[in-house]
Amino acid sequence: NNKVDFSYNQLADPNFSFYDNTLVEAVKSEDHLVYLFFLCLSLCHTVMSEEKVEGELVYQAQSPDEGALVTATRNFGFVFCSRTSETITVIEMGKTRVYQLLAILDFSNERKRMSVVVRTPENRVMLFCKGADTIICELLHPSCASLSDVTMDHLDDFASEGLRTLMIAYRELDNAFFQTWIKKHSEACLTLEDRERKLAMVYEEVERDLMLLGATAIEDKLQSGVPETIVTLSKAKIKVWVLTGDKQETAVNIAYSCRIFKDEMDGVFIVEGTDRETVLQELRTARYKMKPESLLESDPINICLARKPKMPIRVLDEIPNGNYGLVISGYSLAYALEGNMELELVRTACMCKGVICCRMTPLQKAQVVDLVKRYKKVVTLAIGDGANDIGMIKGIGHEGMQAMLSSDFAFCRFRYLQRLLLVHGRWSYSRMCKFLSYFFYKNFAFTLVHFWYAFFNGFSAQTVYDTWFITCYNMIYTSLPVLGLSLFEKDVNETWSLCYPELYEPGQHNLYFNKKEFIKGLMHGIYSSFVLFFVPMGTIFNSERSDGKDISDFQSFSLLVQTTLIWVMTMQIALRTNSWTLISHTFTWGSLGLYFCVLFFLYSDGLCLRFPSTFHFLGVARNNLSQPQMWLCLVLSTVLCMIPVIGYNFLKPLLWPVNVDKVLNRIHFCLKHPLPPPVQTKVKHPGLRRSAYAFSHKQGFGDLITSGKTLKSSAFMKKQEVL
């Protein structure tokens, strides 16, 4: 579609883009309901206007939502110009009209709606209302049932996309009814006892039998990629907790926008008790719904607490019977972070898919992070953007200079966290684990050969290898291959890493390098040292060359063992390498070739004859490596050392598969059999719609506007400037 031309409106924002000509044509044709819809948006708000430059209006809104709605309405030709305590001036399609402001029925967290009562230039009394869909639906006239159903379908679509929704309605008031109602309103405003309740009752008298005009949806302007990043991290079994100072409603709306909470959840628990007993009861009620058996005395954690009540314990992962979320306020946290309540909080929160802690102090943020570290065997990643987040930041921060200076990493977009963890973080963990396991293995195999040799040399501590080989083994012969493995190894590329976040799971449970893996490396090293010693020993023992000369000597045996060792280590690291590049080929096979070059140099006639006291293996390499039995021994030893690794790598995914093995098999299958792109289908969840009405963090400014105080002070300031 072509961009709509707003040239008919001189006050339209030139940067505003819109592509639906149908709505614009309805505005131009002065469709009655469309006219009332935009009129409601231009009148029902608490925005203040200011004309800093002639012809250029600047809006100061109590919340970004209100500012966005009034600005959008302005572009369609309904321009809110100014207000006083008694009037609102609007330019409607180029015509200036002044509405008498009779009453503002202000927004509150309980009402979740706002209304204004105005008298039009035609002397009609109109009530315009906007608010949360769940509230407005209850106030509509029965004749709006069919339109309400259609609007609800649209709101379902908006909510599924994470938009913040409002419903717009109006009512024309009879003059006699209004006169009676305004007296009640004035009396309620002037009363000193129970004023809020009386005002709410008066508001309810007029806010009924409303006629539905339509709905609005506002994008919660998050950074690009935030919801997608949260969803991807949750697939990697990374739990996201939001620790914020924002009000509960704002925090919950952000949680839904970020996909931390979803409409499909089985429930969201709200803990807002104001005393210890209430908070404890709310936490246990939530835990009972998620896992009833966790409250029984037979529960393993409860048994452990009964036996050792003062001993610190690690809370194991508990699996709930569904997907749940938890919202807890800072006031309730003050009780939940005390004494035995800590464990109740951790157990309940850790069973939830997402946790929102709102109205928190910086100290409470730090306490919650520390709480998880003490009770759970997990790694925490604290993300913050300001000085008030320094207390909880242990690893990462962005945007805020103070937070950045206290962090280990800093970046400017939240979505970069996805690649940092699932790509670079996972590669780094995999590389480090392979590096450590191979490093220990190659040194076990290298060193333990002397254990077997001790039984043949009378435990004299004589070394098997040449002194120069011992010097060069870790520094030259095997350093580059393991360095290449630790820098360039990739089990799968970054595309598959992001497509399958489940690949991140081994790092969370430390599956690739732990005590078990260390013992396996030790046993493999013992077996390899056994093969590396006894196969060359059997080959050399009472052996002769083809010309009848004896080669059953220590130097020949030493050469054969160390050459076989280098071959085995090279093939072992080749088995561990999944991503072959020019660098990895150069490092791996180049190191093997370098060994033979150095070998022939160190055992050359010229070097050994010139420095006989330092180089003793004169002609050993030339004489022995030309014998076929030596190469047969080398091949046999390499095969025997490789068989256990190949067999284990083949049988493990079949007999003892873990989730990552299944994912890797799926990736390999997809590489061989590419699948057609999936068809995108939109799934609706009727009945799970939530209200995204979050206009302000506190009570609205209706009383302040109608009192005229803010307007008088503004006029006084302008007068002072003139003087």
From TrEMBL:
Gene3D superfamilies the record matches: Calcium-transporting ATPase, cytoplasmic domain N, HAD superfamily/HAD-like
Organism: Neotoma lepida (Desert woodrat)
Coiled-coil positions: none
Alphabetized NCBIfam families for the sequence: ATPase-Plipid, ATPase_P-type
Protein's UniProt name: Phospholipid-transporting ATPase
Transmembrane segments: 438-456, 468-488, 521-542, 554-575, 587-609, 630-651
Keywords annotated in UniProt: ATP-binding, Magnesium, Membrane, Metal-binding, Nucleotide-binding, Translocase, Transmembrane, Transmembrane helix
EC numbers, comma separated: 7.6.2.1
